[in-house]
Design a protein that fits this description.
The chain is an alpha+beta fold. It is built from 26 helices and 18 strands. Helix 18 packs antiparallel against helix 19, helix 22 runs antiparallel to helix 23 and helix 24 packs antiparallel against helix 25.
Length: 618
């Protein structure tokens, strides 16, 4: 039997486990539990209260409900059956990602809506994966994206429909080499602004008992169920606790909108009230928001509240200029939006003052929006033109903003050093910038023990946090418990039991299960990769390890199955292709081995051992 040169099978995953574990930890910090235990509780409390259907309000508010259901918010999350209502699935052109050499194609069949991923080598299809759409997410006014569901886990699809240009293209964040394939987890921070009534599984990153529905009345009006009960019992409306925006202080009214229309780093405030923010409360009592400067006029797709607050119109309005002054959340924009918004401007700037201030003397020729609000592409979503809500006399004049990466407070209020330090820690964590992480050291004295632990985990160096670590034995948050295990491991202390406890507390956290499996492997225990594959059948690393185990035992049929699944999950998984080539060589399937080795040579033309193995085939 022809075998690969000795150094080829030595590159199997078992030999590289410790290196891969380190790499996975570093690259997955962005998806770690960045929230405190309090913020995790916030996520768990978004249950059926907010999921009461707008239809329940319709008997008394028929016109409002019927109008709201036609808005982007009323359609923010739909079942897959609505896919054709938002996007063109008839003979679409394939989308090519040149960075990963992958093609994508939307497909509609009798069985539903799908996204096909494939790779070509000359005229051959050497990789193919097809996933079914489970939900449509987005207003449809600018874009719609798509989710897939697997065993309760939600993932984003790699294609998005961009309505204004009427094209399919890579989803936001997938461009320029950032392609997540079918594996981008949908955490609660995404559903918070697109869904009501979702029910996350505790301590999982993206598993849900229910992913909810489109936004409902409760998203803005709070205690809808209490209001319905009062109405049903014939009690006076003033006895219930429903939030009526018009009765709120203007800033509290805007806080309802700021939940989603404000981009920035959200930090739980020192001495914030017990409980959680909800409509009708003051957002600034619970959170400080820090905005990251871009150095120029860039603005994000959901930066409306921040940009509006920079306007002199807002600053001089005495609180009269709010979001709902120009936008009715219950209604779609009229067809003649120009006249509609001009009328809103002239409700404050009467015709005489407008003629004095503006070169357009005749009202019918003027367009307040095009003159005073810049419309351009956003910094975070491609193919989208959005209105910058910073109202200025000359919006086209470049204004140098805060330096790129510099943090500033959204409202210009006073804040504590701890709050700023946590914002910078979050910034360093998501960017992976080690220099920014070093700068956080100046704030460590303000952090509590768990915050210091998080910093030391991200720092990636030996040494324990300068704090009382005795309480870490009882950490309830599994990701903090995992971080404590990693810090102890680096420092030469016993660590495995903490990792095992963390995985036991979060049985639905896939990446934690994988890290536990690698730790089992490292310490001579039997790893449970099947627990991972039951949750994510194409998990590349778990399939790769299972395939290698079967290969070592001479079970070539099973080895081929797992290794092909690893490549289906990630067609760039070199170790999986190496072991698949070895599987074919050892089982005498030389034509298949030759094909895999040629693909390896194409991917790594300078790798001599692939050519040696290919030359050794009879």
């Amino acid at each position: 039997m022809i075998r690969l040169p000795r150094n080829l099978p030595a590159l199997s995953l078992l030999a590289a486990s410790s290196c891969w574990l380190w790499l996975l930890i570093q690259t997955s910090c962005q998806t770690e539990e960045k929230q405190s235990d309090i913020q995790n509780q916030v996520k768990q409390q978004n249950t059926e209260k907010a999921s009461i259907s707008p239809q329940a309000c319709r008997p008394c508010h028929q016109a409002i409900v019927d109008s709201f259901l036609l808005t982007g918010k009323g359609k923010s999350l739909q079942t897959a059956s609505h896919s054709a209502d938002f996007a063109d699935w008839v003979n679409p052109a394939p989308v090519y990602d040149r960075h990963r050499d992958l093609h994508y194609l939307p497909e509609r069949t009798v069985g539903g809506f799908y996204i096909l991923e494939y790779r070509l080598a000359d005229s051959d299809t050497i990789h193919q994966r097809r996933e079914k759409v489970s939900q449509v997410v987005g207003s449809g006014n600018q874009t719609v994206s798509f989710f897939r569901e697997e065993n309760g886990y939600l993932y984003e699809m790699p294609l998005t429909w961009y309505r204004k240009k009427a094209i399919w293209d890579l989803s936001p964040g997938y461009e320029n080499g950032g392609n997540y394939g079918f594996g981008r987890e949908i955490g609660t921070e995404c559903l918070e602004c697109h869904a009501s009534g979702y029910e996350p599984v505790l301590h999982s990153l993206n598993r849900y008992r229910s992913s909810g529905s489109a936004l409902t009345c409760g998203a803005c009006h709070g205690e809808v169920e209490n209001h319905l009960a009062h109405m049903k019992n014939g009690k006076r409306a003033r006895e219930d606790k429903i939030v009526r925006l018009k009765q709120l202080d203007p800033q509290i009214q805007m806080d309802v909108c700021r939940q989603c229309h404000l981009e920035g780093i959200k930090v739980r405030k020192d001495n914030s009230p017990a409980g959680n923010f909800s409509p009708g409360k003051r957002f600034s009592d619970y959170y400080e928001i820090f905005i990251e400067g871009s150095g120029n006029q860039d603005f994000g797709f959901a930066s409306h509240a921040e940009r509006l607050q920079m306007s002199k119109c807002f600053q001089k309005s005495g609180g009269r200029l709010t979001c709902t002054g120009c936008h009715d959340p219950h209604a779609r924009l009229p067809d003649d939006s120009q006249s509609f918004f001009n009328g809103k401007c002239l409700s404050c700037h009467n015709e005489n003052s407008h003629q004095t201030a503006c070169r357009m003397a005749k009202r019918e020729k003027s367009n307040c929006i095009s003159c005073h609000l810049r419309k351009s592409g956003t910094s975070d979503i491609p193919h989208v033109n959005s209105t910058d809500h910073w109202i200025r006399k000359n919006p086209g004049v470049s204004t140098l903003g805060p330096r790129k990466g510099e943090l500033r407070h959204f409202a210009g209020r006073q804040f504590s050093r701890r709050e700023l330090g946590l914002a910078r820690l979050h910034q360093a964590e998501t960017s992976g910038d080690k220099q920014k992480l070093e700068e956080v050291k100046q704030f460590l004295s303000e952090f509590n023990s768990e915050e210091k632990l998080r910093f030391h985990y991200l720092l990636g160096k030996p040494g324990l946090p300068d704090t009382d670590t005795a309480g870490f034995r009882d950490l309830e948050n599994p990701m903090l418990r995992y971080q404590w295990a990693e810090v102890k491991k680096r420092s030469g202390l016993p660590w495995y039991s903490d990792l095992a406890i963390a995985a036991g507390k979060a049985p639905d956290r896939i990446e934690l299960l994988y890290r536990k499996a690698l730790a089992d492997e490292e310490t001579g225990r039997k790893p449970d990769y099947q627990a991972i594959l039951k949750r994510n059948a194409l998990h590349p690393e778990a399939n790769l390890n299972m395939g290698y185990e079967e290969l070592q035992s001479g079970n070539y049929v099973k080895a081929e199955f797992f290794l092909k699944n690893a490549l289906k999950g990630n067609p760039d998984k070199i170790l999986a292709r190496e072991n698949l080539a070895r599987c074919y060589l050892e089982s005498g399937r030389f034509s298949e081995a030759r094909k895999e080795l040629n693909l390896l040579i194409k991917q790594n033309p300078g790798e001599l051992r692939y050519r040696q193995a290919l030359a050794s085939i009879p």
